[in-house]
């Protein structure tokens, strides 16, 4: 991870702890992360806060062996594109898993985990990851 | 409301990480006989947190299960206490993170507690008092730990990860187990400690037994029963703090509780000692199978030292208010890892 | 809009330049381009330089002025262009627009990256900046991981195999052996790729383009003027650029780069050309899957057929369409900010018949395709050689 700036992490707590995004009441599209304008409706759009569902399925996945700074001790780890049950997609790590369970189409649900910490003296960034639901 | 309102548990949730290491695998790494150790401790495997889990994430998962399974409006939680001896920060509360993660804030009394393995039940007592005094509608008390242990120390065979969250309330339709009384027995007994900059706790070996665990647990149990004019035969279940699988059985024997009353809440043989989570995860396992009118005695123990005792009476509400994430299922849902993966998961590798 | 042509090109050897600095590389490419064009530095009216992450790689920003200074071109206006790995291609496009608009008659385009001054971890992090920091990098995503997610999906939907991915790399290494400027001068086998170890499954080390130092430069000139001063100008027939969401998860499809399709459509509409009219293409093969996506999205092959087309050898040098005759990013090397400019240098050499052993026979139209990030920026150019002074 490249940026440990505290305000940048703090500002994102509602998004990363609870999947808070938003929704355009004009076209009905949901957005995660939340957007400032609805790209679909533009000026006609009206965005309200919306908490995303916590369940979804894997659209694609990869097992990462070569990690960026801050994740070196975690390899190998799974990353996946997840489609939540409302159709919104996001990228997240998949935890607790044996290789044979991480598959396209596998059902997943959100868990609360530590995402990164720069070192033992730095603040810890928590947020969403997903686990396979059997 | 009157001070006579029934105050008790209105919801609970547990989290046990799925990774397990067998005691024999730890023993093998140090050239010891795992069979002997497992038998002498009555512990066969222990739950291991992943590298991205800590007392905070465990607390959040347990708290979410409690709120979701028992349909509690988190915004009505007026106090939240997290007890742990592995809080991720020395300064900065775990509880405020949990509060935001379950959306309980910002109208929230909040603090972290530390009293070795009884910090979770200490939180329950505070919540009980606040609800009883009508200062809050619900209080949430959590005990969660990713217990540390020095490689090749006796603790390594038992120190485990897990936690439980209890919501204390007074709504007659929601209370599933009324708290009839609580009592604590506390002395300065330094049987186990960790100084601020130490990675692992230290302990006083066999001193942790008679003058520490047994003295406090037995005293607290006896006194609360005497105070309420109850006897071991009046209880359907008893749950003790469980640093290993042997101590609680011996405590039950001393207090004249039958084995079948202690076994349902004795989980250390399968998940190890989850420290602040240990006695209350045991309580959750008992509530998972309780029937209305069941009487439960809970006695925690925290080194340093003290025991919190509770007398609980299960209500009719338990028929339609129950946990959807059973402790038994979490114990059975497991993935074994070897010792190398274990030390990697717990970040015990130092250059 | 006025027609614009390339009248000179320069490129350094791509590779690990332990003994040479960022400044030396960019000066070498620039001087070569000026010499090739046969013009004086003082004839250059403006400069556009593509560079992705010099701040992280060498701790230096303000690259536009730096390049002009080092080339002795002060006080001309000099602008750094950043669009991740498409920085070079977008610099070329901005220079092209500046000449086409009539603002200038002769401008220089540079592309440079010095990537070996830092550890692989820092380089990975610098490149990661092309993705979405808040929703990708923060969660441990790397560039190989993002392309791996696309590869896995392509394999799922179209039956593309890891062997076919490997064949892209094998072909590009083979072409690179014919290119003296290329980083790799060694052929590899499918087995070599398959045994090279996962970086982010299903992508292995040899599915990934390397970390490279290098620079490339072009001199652009208004075409009428170009015909007077250059024997064989190469006209920029069309330029198109498109953008998409930075975050891969926000894209509708993981098996295409929408920005490539949109920019390609614009190119074909503007020129009246069809994919089959293109003789060769330098496409953005930062990972093997990226070349497969590119040859599909550019219309050379049907969607889903990219892997099979590669397996059948349809993309090899002087086959149905020569894809990456230079060796591509995989074989030639990928100094990120230089890549887009280097692709145009290759097109220039090929169309002038100056590509040596890797010469594409009877090359008429050449296309370059430069991608930023996981597809958030795509810039495409088409070139052809024209008659110049006798």
Features:
heterotrimer, B: 351 residues, alpha/beta, Peroxisomal Thiolase, Chain A, domain 1, 2 domains, nine-stranded mixed sheet, three-stranded mixed sheet, 12 helices, 14 strands, 32% helix, C: 390 residues, two-stranded antiparallel sheet
What can you see in these coordinates?
The complex is a heterotrimer of chains A (134), B (351) and C (390). By secondary structure, chain A is mainly beta. Chain A has 2 helices and 8 strands. The two termini of chain A are 31 Å apart. With 351 residues, chain B is of the alpha/beta class. The mean pLDDT of chain B is 96. In chain B, a hairpin with a 6-residue loop joins strand 12 (295-299) and strand 13 (306-314). In chain B, helix 1 packs across helix 2 and helix 3 packs parallel to helix 4 (94-101). Chain C has 390 residues and is of the alpha/beta class. Chain C has 2 domains: 4-119 and 211-229, Thiolase/Chalcone synthase (Peroxisomal Thiolase, Chain A, domain 1); 140-207 and 237-385, Peroxisomal Thiolase, Chain A, domain 1, CATH 3.40.47. Chain C has helices spanning 22-37, 54-57, 63-70, 87-100, 120-128, 143-158, 162-176, 190-194, 223-229, 258-271, 288-297, 306-311, 328-332, 336-351; strands at 4-11, 46-50, 78-81, 106-114, 198-200, 203-204, 213-222, 234-243, 278-282, 322-323, 365-372, 377-385. Chains in contact: A-B, A-C. Chain A binds chain B through residues 13-14, 17-18, 73-74, 93, 95-96, 98, 111-115, 123-124, 126, 129, 134, and chain B through 17-19, 50-54, 56-57, 60-61, 64, 88-89, 92, 97, 100-101, 103, 333, 335, 344, 347, 349.
Q: Which helices and strands, and how do they pair?
A:
The complex is a heterotrimer of chains A (134), B (351) and C (390).
Chain A: H1 6-10, H2 13-18, E1 20-24, E2 30-31, E3 47-51, E4 55-64, E5 77-84, E6 89-95, E7 107-117, E8 124-132
Parallel strand pairs in A: 6-8
Antiparallel strand pairs in A: 1-2, 1-3, 4-5, 4-7, 5-6, 7-8
Chain B: E1 8-15, E2 19-22, H1 23-29, H2 34-41, E3 45-48, H3 55-69, E4 77-83, H4 94-101, E5 109-113, H5 119-132, E6 138-146, E7 161-169, E8 177-186, E9 192-193, E10 202-203, H6 209-227, E11 237-240, H7 247-254, H8 259-262, H9 268-271, H10 278-289, E12 295-299, E13 306-314, H11 327-332, E14 335-336, H12 339-345
Parallel strand pairs in B: 2-14, 4-5, 4-6, 11-12
Antiparallel strand pairs in B: 1-7, 1-8, 2-3, 6-7, 8-13, 9-10, 12-13
Helix pairs in contact in B: 1-2, 3-4
Chain C: E1 4-11, H1 22-37, E2 46-50, H2 54-57, H3 63-70, E3 78-81, H4 87-100, E4 106-114, H5 120-128, H6 143-158, H7 162-176, H8 190-194, E5 198-200, E6 203-204, E7 213-222, H9 223-229, E8 234-243, H10 258-271, E9 278-282, H11 288-297, H12 306-311, E10 322-323, H13 328-332, H14 336-351, E11 365-372, E12 377-385
Parallel strand pairs in C: 2-3, 2-4, 9-10, 9-11
Antiparallel strand pairs in C: 1-7, 1-8, 4-7, 5-6, 8-12, 11-12
Helix pairs in contact in C: 4-14, 7-11
């Amino acid at each position: 991870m490249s940026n440990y700036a505290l305000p940048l992490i703090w500002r994102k707590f509602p998004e990363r702890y609870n999947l808070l995004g938003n929704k355009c009441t004009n076209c009905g599209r949901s957005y995660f992360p939340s957007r400032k304008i609805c790209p679909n409706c533009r000026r006609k759009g009206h965005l309200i806060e919306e908490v995303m569902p916590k369940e979804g399925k894997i659209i694609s996945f990869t097992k990462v062996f070569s990690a960026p700074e801050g994740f070196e001790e975690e390899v190998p780890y799974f990353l996946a594109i997840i489609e939540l049950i409302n159709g919104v997609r996001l990228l997240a790590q998949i935890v607790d898993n044996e290789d044979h369970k991480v598959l396209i189409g596998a059902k997943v649900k959100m868990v609360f985990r530590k995402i990164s910490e720069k070192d033992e003296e730095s603040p810890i960034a928590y947020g969403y990851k997903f686990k396979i639901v059997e | 409301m009157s001070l006579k309102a029934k105050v008790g548990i209105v919801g609970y949730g547990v989290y046990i990480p799925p990774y397990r290491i067998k005691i024999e695998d730890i023993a093998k790494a140090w050239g010891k006989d795992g069979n002997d150790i497992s038998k002498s401790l009555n512990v066969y495997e222990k739950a291991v947190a992943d590298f991205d889990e800590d007392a905070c994430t465990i607390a959040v998962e347990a708290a979410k299960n409690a709120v979701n399974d028992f349909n509690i409006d988190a915004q009505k939680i007026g106090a939240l206490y997290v007890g742990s001896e592995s809080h991720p920060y020395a300064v900065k509360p775990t509880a405020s993170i949990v509060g935001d993660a379950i959306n309980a804030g910002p109208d929230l009394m909040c603090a972290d507690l530390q009293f070795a393995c009884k910090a979770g039940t200490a939180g329950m007592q505070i919540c009980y008092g606040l609800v009883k005094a009508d200062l809050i509608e619900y209080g949430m008390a959590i005990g969660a730990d990713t217990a540390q242990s020095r490689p090749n120390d006796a603790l390594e065979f038992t120190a485990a990860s897990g936690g439980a969250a209890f919501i204390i309330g007074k709504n007659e339709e929601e209370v599933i187990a009324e708290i009839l009384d609580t009592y604590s027995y506390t002395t300065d007994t330094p049987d186990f400690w960790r100084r601020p900059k130490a990675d692992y706790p230290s302990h006083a070996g066999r001193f942790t037994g008679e003058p520490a665990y047994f003295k406090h647990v037995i005293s607290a149990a006896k006194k609360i029963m005497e105070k309420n004019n109850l006897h071991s035969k009046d209880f359907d279940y008893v749950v003790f703090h469980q640093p290993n699988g042997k101590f609680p059985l011996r405590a039950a024997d001393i207090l004249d509780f039958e084995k079948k009353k202690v076994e349902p809440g004795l989980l250390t043989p399968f998940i190890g000692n989850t420290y602040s989570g240990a006695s209350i995860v045991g309580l959750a396992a008992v509530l998972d199978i309780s029937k209305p009118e069941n009487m439960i005695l809970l006695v925690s123990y925290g080194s340093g030292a003290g025991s919190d005792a509770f007398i609980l009476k299960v209500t009719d509400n338990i028929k339609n208010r129950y946990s959807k994430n059973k402790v038994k299922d979490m114990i059975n849902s497991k993935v074994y890892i070897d010792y190398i993966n274990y030390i990697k998961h717990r970040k015990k590798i130092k250059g | 809009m006025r027609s614009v042509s390339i009248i000179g090109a320069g490129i350094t050897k791509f590779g690990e330049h332990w003994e040479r600095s960022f400044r030396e590389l960019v000066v070498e490419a620039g001087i070569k381009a000026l010499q090739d064009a046969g013009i004086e530095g003082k004839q250059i009216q403006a400069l556009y330089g593509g560079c992705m992450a010099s701040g992280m790689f060498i701790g230096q920003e303000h690259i536009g002025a730096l390049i002009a200074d080092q080339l002795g071109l002060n006080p001309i206006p000099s602008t750094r262009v950043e669009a991740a790995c498409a920085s070079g291609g977008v610099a070329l496009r901005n220079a092209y627009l500046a000449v086409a608009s009539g603002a200038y008659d002769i401008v220089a385009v540079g592309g440079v990256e010095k990537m070996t001054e830092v550890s692989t971890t820092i380089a990975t992090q610098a490149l990661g900046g092309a993705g979405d920091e808040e929703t990708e990098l923060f969660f441990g995503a790397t560039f190989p991981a993002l392309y791996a997610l696309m590869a896995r999906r392509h394999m799922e939907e179209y039956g593309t195999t890891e062997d076919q991915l490997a064949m892209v790399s094998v072909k590009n290494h083979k072409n690179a052996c014919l290119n003296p400027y290329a980083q790799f001068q060694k052929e590899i086998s499918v087995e070599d790729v398959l045994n090279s170890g996962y970086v982010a499954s299903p992508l292995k080390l040899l599915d990934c383009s390397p970390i490279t130092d290098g620079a490339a430069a072009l001199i652009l000139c208004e075409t009428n003027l170009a015909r007077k001063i250059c024997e064989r100008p190469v006209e920029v027939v069309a330029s198109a650029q498109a953008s998409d969401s930075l975050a891969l998860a926000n894209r509708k499809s993981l098996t295409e780069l929408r920005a490539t399709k949109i920019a390609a459509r614009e190119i074909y509409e503007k020129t009246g050309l069809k994919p089959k009219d293109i003789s060769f293409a330098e496409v953005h093969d930062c990972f093997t899957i990226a070349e497969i996506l590119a040859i599909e999205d550019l219309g050379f092959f049907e969607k889903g057929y990219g892997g099979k087309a590669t397996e059948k050898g349809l993309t090899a040098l002087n086959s149905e369409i020569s894809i990456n005759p230079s060796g591509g990013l995989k074989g030639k090397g990928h100094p990120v900010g230089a890549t887009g400019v280097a692709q145009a240098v290759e097109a220039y050499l090929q169309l002038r018949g100056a590509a040596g052993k890797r010469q594409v026979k009877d090359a008429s139209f050449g296309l370059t395709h430069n991608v930023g990030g996981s597809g958030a920026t795509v810039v495409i150019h088409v070139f052809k050689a024209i008659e110049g002074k006798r």
